[in-house]
Amino acid sequence: MSDSNTLVEIKGLRDGLLISLGNAEWDELRAALMEQIEVRRSFFQGARVALDVGSQIFHVNELSELRDTLSERGVNLWAVVSESPTTEKTAQLLGLATRISRPRPQETTRPPAEEIGEGAAMWVARTLRSGTRIEFPGNIVVLGDVNPGAEVIAEGGILVWGRVRGIVHAGVKGDESAVVCGLDLSAARIRIGGVSAVLSERSGESHPEKYFLEDGIIKSESWQSNQS
Amino acid sequence: MGAQVITITSGKGGVGKTTAVANLAVALAADGARVVCIDGDIGLRNLDVVMGLENRIVYDVVDAIEGRCRLRQAMIRDKRLPELYLIPAAQTRDKSAVTPSDMIRLCNELRTEVDWVLIDSPAGIERGFKNSIAAADRVLVLTNPEVSAVRDADRVIGILEAEEKGTPSLIINRLNPVMVKQHDMLSAEDVLDLLAIKLIGIVPEDEGVIVGTNRGNPVALEPKSRAGQAFRNIAKRMKGEDVPFMNLEAGTGLWARLTGRK
Predict the structure, then answer these.
(1) Which of A175, A221, B50, B169 is 20 to 30 A from B76, alpha carbon to alpha carbon?
(2) CA pseudo-torsion sign B73, B79, B82, B86
(3) Which residue numbers of A have CB closer than 8 Å to B's CBs?
(4) Among partner residues A60, A94, A130, which is closest to B151 by beta-carbon distance?
């Protein structure tokens, strides 16, 4: 009992509970979490829970199993906060939030966009369907389409090898040098920094384009194979 | 060999899930298979009405799950086809009366009894939807050729992929070839272009479907109905038969032929 208390820390948030898991094997943590929920059944009934899993790595089946198990006990898991990019990606795939309104105390472990340089990019090799939201504090490369209702949000630039019909927001923390490139951006909703692209009548043939910010306005440049 | 569990879902409501379940079940059962349909829309049941079995309900799916009756007692035998059964939803409870593991247990019990279990998912992506897909071996996503329905179908496909349920197959329902020709409706190609999953059938819009639904007589039993034929074809494709699409390979030929008939 005392054991599970130290592994599972529960705090009240403005809009629910934050459960922080300690440092142990997942099996042990899971057992401790379930024990807490069993013991304090009425307290957890109907609770809206954000789970801070530290550096624990979760794959889709583990996380969806956990969410379903919690839901069967009347606990609604809405967010998973993690230091692991794999876990964050998993949570995003399942439509769970990965940030809660209160910033994490160790937020500084992530370098700001300026320091990311050219190296850091998130590689997303699939089509993003409606309801998917991908966020990354660097550049994002999508190998697939961005469908209507999907959002790609990067502190750096965004490159989409596919058709974009959803929202792409580059330089979300204010990086005005961020660009958006795509094979077909004719139906995209583009934002760079704090500026939204004015939707012009973009007609007919689609071709690869690059969007960038110049004098506070989003401009586009189409790519042609005869250019260098 | 155990039954295949198939869930039909759509995200958006009102696109024809319940009608599709009734018709596919009838089509499979008319071909000699043993079929059970489960109404997954607890609290808003209506598969019983569409199948014309409303006044035979004694026990429902929640009774079976909570052990107030044996599974067999909750299975209502169809009035036309001897090997077709319905497990109705409870009307006086809500989605939280059932959990995903209840559904898995229920379907595992049915697997040895029948050849097909068809689950009619409620609209939305919440508890009822999660319950409905929990036991599925295969999911069919149904959509109308409308921007809003396609958007919701896309969302549902994304969730199914994320939950590692495998890629679902697509049914496009209520396609009106005349409107497509006049560019007033998305074409099947437009829908497929966005959703990018395998197509298992296109059901043309047909007033007969509404009449059949109201009277509890699924059109799949009507030999002359085009929509009925489309549902029968989908049922065959579910069994793995290679049935050509109603002239879809000919591209515009499909529309020409359909519009020529009107």
Answers:
(1) B169
(2) negative
(3) 60-61, 64, 68, 71-72, 93-95, 127-132, 145, 147-149, 165
(4) A130
Where do the structural domains in chain A lie, given as residue ranges? 2-107, 110-222
ipTM summary value: 0.79
What are the residues of chain B with a beta carbon less than 8 Å away from any beta carbon of chain A?
99-101, 127, 130, 134, 151-152, 154-155, 157-159, 161-164, 194, 196
Each domain of chain B, given as residue ranges in start order, spans: 4-261
Q: Which fold has domain A110-222?
A: Pectate Lyase C-like (2.160.20)
Does domain A2-107 fall under CATH 3.30.70.260? My reply is yes
- φ and ψ of A181, to 5 deg: -120, 145
Q: Over its length of 262 residues, how does chain B's per-residue pLDDT go in tens digits?
A: 589 999 999 999 999 999 999 999 999 999 999 999 999 999 999 999 999 999 999 999 999 999 999 999 999 999 999 999 999 999 998 888 999 999 999 999 999 999 999 999 999 999 999 999 999 999 999 999 999 999 999 999 999 998 888 899 999 999 999 999 999 999 999 999 999 999 999 999 999 999 999 999 999 999 999 999 999 999 999 999 999 998 643 344 555 555 444 3
Helices (H), A19-116: 26-39, 41-44, 60-72, 85-93, 113-116
Say if CB A168 and CB A150 are below 8 A apart. Answer: no
Cβ distance of B196 and A95 shorter than 8 Å? no
Give contacts of B154 with chain A, Cβ < 8 Å: 129-131, 147-149
Chain A: residue whose CA lies nearest to B98: A72
Three-state SS for B70? coil
- For residue B154, give the nearest of A72, A93, A129 by CB distance: A129
| Fold annotation for B4-261 | Rossmann fold (3.40.50)
Q: A153 vs A101, A171, A188, CA distance in Å?
A: 17, 8, 13
CA of residue B131 relative to chain centroid, distance = 15
CA angle A76, B150, B215 (to 5 degrees): 90
- Please spell the DSSP secondary structure of B93-139, one letter per residue: S-GGGS-HHHHHHHHHHHHTT-SEEEEEPPSSSSHHHHHHHHT-SEE
Shortest Cα–Cα distance, A150 to chain B (Å): 9
Contact A129 B101 (CB under 8 A): no
**B-chain residues near A71 (CB < 8 A):** 99, 127, 130
Residues in chain B: 262
